[in-house]
Amino acid sequence: MSTIAPIGSSVTEDNTVLRHDWSSPEVLRMFQRPFNDLLFTAHSIHRQNFDPNDVQISTLLSIKTGACPEDCKYCPQSVHYDTGLETEKLLPVEEVVAAAQAALAKGATRFCMGAAWRQPTDRNLSKVITLIEAVRETGMETCVTLGMLSDAQAQRLKTAGLDYYNHNLDTSQEYYPEVVSSRSYGDRLDTLKNVRDAGLNVCAGGIVGMGESRSDRAGLLVELANLPTHPQSVPINQLVRVAGTPMEGLDDLDELEFVRTIALARIMLPKSVVRLSAGRAEMSDSMQALCYFAGANSIFYGEQLLTTDNPEMDSDQQLFEQLGINRKSSADQVA
User: Fold this and answer.
1) Is 291 annotated in the active site?
2) pLDDT confidence of 310, banded at 50, 70, 90?
3) Which of 110, 156, 196, 275 is catalytic?
4) Which of 68, 188, 196, 291 is catalytic?
5) Catalytic: which of 75, 196, 217, 241?
6) pTM, 2 dp
7) Nearest to residue 323, comparing CAs of 270, 282, 287?
8) Cα–Cα distances in angstroms (integers) from residue 195 to residues 121, 198, 265, in the given order
9) 72 has catalytic annotation
10) Which site from 48, 73, 276, 289 is most exposed, i.e. has the minimal number of CB atoms within 10 Å?
């Protein structure tokens, strides 16, 4: 018997109800629950939808670095800030394919490529499509993050065989003006709509630890969960404070507050893959273990994420062995 979806929700093939009517006050109340109760709820939902001991592995490569015209206050690639980053042109196909093959050999199942553009030109998009097609020939899933997209550009990427498109919301609508002024929140939502309409899988999340309040963290999750379709992948980044950016002097976010954020993402987005993204190099093994228990089931694997440090692969593998976590194989992938 099929489940009838309440107003403001949808139903998956296995009759899981996905809500799209969350409110910030409701999510704030959940944030305030006792830590153990919150994690128990999140872990229970995680077990209902995923193998709790499987983690999907992705690798991220910067294919065009620096000189981005945007003014995102967290980003070392912005042309507005002096971070000592050297600008690089779009990488050649051979170099990208070699990186993809190396990632595949080390256990990654998805290869993600990022370019520091506000929005790709049609000419640059054609070059990226060549990279996508070449990486797909290695057998890996493909994901790109290129900035804003028009509906026609999203359709071109779909036709080229792209699997995922990443475009983060960063934070809540209310706090967003404190982070970015060169691109509106509406611009981000429009790009996500174009990606969804093209039939591409959506990868969308945000960054915490940028000086936002708990209310803003709740607001970010509300925005993601109330999209017409939940993003298939949800990266949750912890701010990496890069010297030269306006956010370099911010205080650390409390570790347990980050774990609470992961738990809420799992509760509100039960079928989405929740990825521990930037900031893992500053996380203890204990903190990461709590995140996996709370529902995180994907990471970026490799010593660098675009331009910032990431844990060494050996240390990730050692932690997986300690926790009894399996790397998801390419033959049996999660979203």
Assistant:
1) no
2) low
3) 275
4) 68
5) 75
6) 0.89
7) 287
8) 17, 5, 21
9) yes
10) 48
Known catalytic membership, residue 112: yes
Report strand pairing: 326-327 vs 54-64. parallel
Residues 20-36 have a mean pLDDT of: 96
Give the ranges where 59-92 is alpha helix by DSSP (H).
Answer: none
75 is catalytic: yes
State the catalytic residue, choosing from 19, 110, 143, 291. 143
What is the amino acid identity at position 295? G
Is-catalytic flag, 68? yes
Among candidate residues 188, 203, 217, 327, the one labeled active-site is 203
State how far the Cα of 46 lies from the Cα of 272, in Å rounded to an integer. Answer: 10
How far apart are the C-alpha atoms of 157 and 128, rounded to whole Å?
9
Q: Which long-range contacts (CB under 8 A, 24 or more apart) does 162-165 make?
A: 162/132, 162/200, 163/110, 163/200, 163/201, 164/110, 164/112, 164/200, 164/201, 164/202, 164/203, 164/232, 164/233, 165/195, 165/200, 165/201, 165/202, 165/203
Residue 113 host element (H or E) = strand 110-115
Mean pLDDT of 300-304: 65
